[in-house]
Predict the structure of Alpha-1,4 glucan phosphorylase.
Amino acid sequence: MSNTSWFNKDEFKKNIISNCKSLFRKNIDEADKQQLFQSVAYAVKEIIIDRWIATQKEYAKQDKKTVYYMSMEFLMGRALGNNMINLMAYDEMKEVLEELGMDINVIEDQEPDAALGNGGLGRLAACFLDSLATLEYPAYGCGIRYKYGMFKQEIKDGYQVEVPDNWLKDGNPFEIKRSEYPTVVKFGGYVRSYRDEKTGRDMFVQEDYRAVTAIPYDVPVVGYGVNTVNTLRIWDAEPVDTFNLSSFDKGDYQKAVEEENLAKNIVEVLYPNDNHYAGKELRLKQQYFFVSASVQRAIAQYKERHDDVRKLYEKVTFQLNDTHPTVAVAELMRILMDEEGLEWDEAWDVTTKTVAYTNHTIMAEALEKWPIELFSRLLPRIYQIVEEINRRFVEEIKAKYPGNQDKIRKMAIIYDGQVKMANLAICAGYSVNGVAKLHTEILEKQELKDFYEMMPEKFNNKTNGITQRRFLLHANPLLAAWITDKIGDGWITDLTQLKKLKVYVDDAKCQQELMQIKYKNKVRLAKYIKEHNGIDVDPNSIFDVQVKRLHEYKRQLLNILHVMYLYNEVKKNPDMDIKPRTFIFGAKAAAGYKIAKQTIKLINSVADVINNDASINGKIKVVFIENYRVSNGEIIFAAADVSEQISTASKEASGTGNMKFMLNGAMTLGTMDGANVEIVQEVGIENAVIFGLSSDEVIRYENEGGYDPMEIFNNDQNIREVLMELINGKYSPDDTERFRDIYNSLLNNQGGRRADTYFILKDFRSYADAQKIINERYSDEKAWAKSMMLNIASAGKFSSDRTIEEYVHDIWKLEKVHIPDVK
Ligand code: GPQ
């Protein structure tokens, strides 16, 4: 591993000063904070650039296989601090900034999050890029340079208000516009076919289309402790030929205006839906736009060095991050046949050895299904190809299951007037993976059972992971330093080494040190909450945290209903023995998700009542942290005592927040869902608190048509009391109807939707019991500290380094490319 002898303090300092001059015509004592951030960022980029050049040169030279990770989302967060960390120069750079009179935290705080993603799926893509670079694998991230990323959330009067995220306002110092790679993407029109007399081949040409030019922007992805700098390539859209605008030909003028609008709209904004498909035409345009551009470029690059496109799969693999980029299958077929002149069978052979698919959910409402009318109008040639893929696939199904119409209904790619993207991805992909053991099992046994029976060899599991560089080394410097002091710094690139901490779990001094670090991180979070929410919280209370997207299946409602119940209990028994608890929430709701938004209002309303009730002596506090995102997440994970992972069993494919909390020493309070199952397996059931229905039980109830929540309502007084408080004005004195929808969703079947779809009331008692156990365990400080240490020591499996090595070994078959020192 490299050291930091390459780092030249004076040069770095000089660069910051000269950047400030040339960018802003200012000395650093005259510049504002944003300008200082820019000046520092450009100085860091200067160092990155040489390694970036060296990496791409070495890749060209060695010509090893490359993975293209295709994703609609890359939730990168901030780059500056992470780049400093991965260059292994954080402390040195911090020193330089100090000498220049700057506080590194203040400088880092000026950078807007690159929030080109919704939640777990997008953040996973970002962690994967970090691991790929650190492990020295040739890789590209391929995505969209949204002008507006995930909206900023403001809380006004307890309600979520969405504010546009103009993240590029001050420019992005790390990106590089690659004007030399303009790539045309075509939409609409019709397909003209003819026979080429010379070759005798049928030819297909898209006519009367609307086109945009895709322009790539490259963002460096710095590997930790290596010279590798990979590329996140995100595409912007520009009108094809502005020249035409001056044309007086009416048809051309009309077309030029349309193309200008198409270009403007296509990359305007990230769709803010998590685990939910909305079926919007513009979304399909976004998908084809970045997929077509990425596949075209990948093939062009391949052809610079190779002349037989039939062997593409030897050098290129496309990983589809969920079904969002699945048009890649047909786009690759189109290029291979229409542009490279391959026959169908040859093109299919290449495609099915090049494309692989990751599934991230079993939630039915997330499944992408495009109406044929829309799909074929927007992508006429692509639709023809999908039709032919489907025709052949249905023949295969018929041959294997003669007379079994049910198999066709379930597996056909085109059925019932819709194009089913998951079916296309599975049919064409050479690998299909889930993201946690339980999730993959459910795919194989339930959701994708027919596919699994027909092609079991494609299916495999890749349990998710997170990068310890961002979520421990950067997010929690105190804990990182403590760990390094105990076991050395090998854990930074080999997280399994954390298990060496196990020898310290009974050491009283170590326990105290760990509690002290947690306390300091809680003070840091308390300060953040005070500054951003104006609420005082007590760092001596238990920090009980649920941060993630707001979704019914994630059951923030269960959490807040329990808080309401606990509040009632404390009011009834003022002497009740409870450790003071701060319930911390953070969550964005999709803009059109009504019941999710009501839940945010409910949390804030409960917070208002409880936080202002002096009679409970601050035993319970409730805080809703505004605008939860990657950057404040880093502060939050470091400060958590309890990690709420309470999704309805079977619904959370994996979860990755659960891993970030564990790595920072929080105890998991959760259901046996997603990767929680593996967390418990690693740390031992005694070091987590598990409750609720199992996934088998949930699935059984669902197959039987649900359960009867009225029975619980009628028989459990405490639950009934809490539910009545939703509609008696206790938390909505000005409008008793405000939370009626939530109340109804728990108790009434409504238009095909079962009452309490997510088993909140069914799991309530067992959750309340689990919360009691947390209370008891925390009272024994030593036992708690031991558990905390065991959680950290057992988190080794959950590094995205491990996940990536599995993808590389089982799916991608990449080889490392070592980048020699630059200077
Ligand atoms: N996930 Cl389908 C998302 O964040 N957004 C999505 O649209 C879909 C899945 C999540 C999933 O809910 C989590 O359980 C996973 O941990 C995460 O993807 C990464 O696999």
